[in-house]
């Protein structure tokens, strides 16, 4: 029998990891155990506090469903997601920078034709026309790229979010677009708005308990993928948002901030399918990096990002 003490408990746990454990799993678990034990010592964690932490994790799982992932939000507000994406960008040099997936990605967004209005003709908010190109590192257009995108409605809620004050058709403000030979994309929507991340769950306890606000700068989410290229997971932020320097989840990067220019042109508005003469225009060109190892990109990322995945 081995008597555990503060001095040897960490080693005792590390010794339980089998010799044939996958090397990457071993690296992660050994570091996790060491840092977790050091954290307990640093703050002199009590048994009641450890039990509270266990219940907190349990509640994170209980509030999550196929339309909201509290675990992702937890990583976001702690800056863990931002740090992981910053480290990941080291192998994506030359491509569009990454940003956060967020807790409201939904698998299964329908395919849309170019020019489609993802707001599904919502009359709230300000009309917006968003367009650009997807090119490789040499500036050549890429055909067959899927842009899977989503945003909040003008009322600051995602369409299926708990507490949504307006009934929307399923997958409103979402859609998948596929580029043609010219690599271009374009669609209609409503200009993104600032909005708060939900605070009705466990993550809200962290924000409220530490005096932090819950606001995110207005943005559009993008997943961009095609076999043979690194997948892009990113966000484009409105340059007029008041929260660019205080994003609750630390997702803003300077290269991802774009202007929405106000246009008053009846002919162009009619061409794009808007009522009236005024709309906002946003433009951005995405750069993808070659990667021959990427195969079945759409299915692979769907499984990775889906909240129902194992």
Please, could you describe this protein's structure?
The protein is built from 8 helices and 12 strands. It is α/β, with parallel strands linked by helices. It has 2 domains: 9-45; 63-305, Aromatic compound dioxygenase (Protocatechuate 3,4-Dioxygenase, subunit A, Sandwich), CATH 2.60.130.10. Strands 1, 4, 10, 11 and 12 form a 5-stranded mixed sheet that branches. Strands 3-2-7-8-9 form a 5-stranded mixed sheet, with helices on one face. A hairpin with a 6-residue loop joins strand 7 (219-225) and strand 8 (232-238). The protein is globular. It starts with 8 loop residues before the first helix and ends in a 5-residue tail after the last helix. The relative contact order is 0.16.
Q: How many domains make up the coordinates?
A: 2
Measured on Cα atoms, how large is the radius of gyration? 22 Å
- Give the termini distance in whole angstroms: 38 Å
Instruction: Kindly report the average pLDDT value.
Output: 94
Strand content: 15-25%
For the secondary structure, the number of strands is: 12
Low-confidence stretches: none
Kindly identify the CATH topology of the largest domain.
Answer: Protocatechuate 3,4-Dioxygenase, subunit A
- Helix fraction, binned, reads 25-40%
Largest pleated sheet:
5 strands, mixed
Q: What does the overall shape look like?
A: globular
